[in-house]
């Protein structure tokens, strides 16, 4: 079992790859996700971020790096690991880190973010990554006990505009706030140059998903360029 310090050090200064497929897509299968996770690790990923209990279990069997697990449930509002029961199940499925909605919005089960994180830390060994949308979210999530702050929801709540590419200004703001949690950039990072820019802005690690693991979207980029 990796310690908290070992997990965080494994991520520091490294690339995390998000391995996800949407319902109904050809790759929407846990075994396929596990194989893609293993391929990402072979290419240099220090960790993988995986959605769904079956995918988490398959990825734990396929890789030896830390697995960041989440469970999307719902279509609007708080959908990323929205309740404590979701978070607990994600931890039990084998996640080293549980990613959850880290905004200040009301959670479906009525628990506060602090209550959710506190229970998770008490009942499991998992770390918590809070997916935030603003500096105020990040501050509140750290106060609630989050181990990692992600910029995942920047531009997806009402607090900040959706940027073309990663929200570098938000990354810089959180860096300058010197919060006692690891800062991870995530969201709309579609090129190596953007990943490097996120690191330069202050991110301690970078998550890339679509540009590496979602061939439908990647193909559409090239098709539009060729046909456009």
How confident is the prediction overall: mean pLDDT? 98
Query: Helix and strand string, N-terminal first?
Result: HEHEHEHEHEHEHEHEHH
By CATH, the superfamily comes out as Aldolase class I
- Which structural class do the helices and strands define? alpha/beta
Number of DSSP strands?
Answer: 8
Classified by CATH, the class is: Alpha Beta
Taking the sheet with the most strands, its summary is: 8 strands, parallel, barrel
Rg over CA atoms: 16 Å
Low-confidence stretches: none
EC number: 5.1.3.9
Enzyme class: isomerase
Family: Belongs to the NanE family.
Pfam families: NanE
Topology of this structure?
Elements: H1 4-11, E1 15-19, H2 30-42, E2 47-51, H3 53-62, E3 67-70, H4 84-92, E4 97-101, H5 113-123, E5 127-131, H6 135-144, E6 148-150, H7 168-177, E7 182-186, H8 192-201, E8 205-208, H9 210-213, H10 215-227
Parallel strand pairs: 1-2, 1-8, 2-3, 3-4, 4-5, 5-6, 6-7, 7-8
Helix pairs in contact: 2-3, 4-5
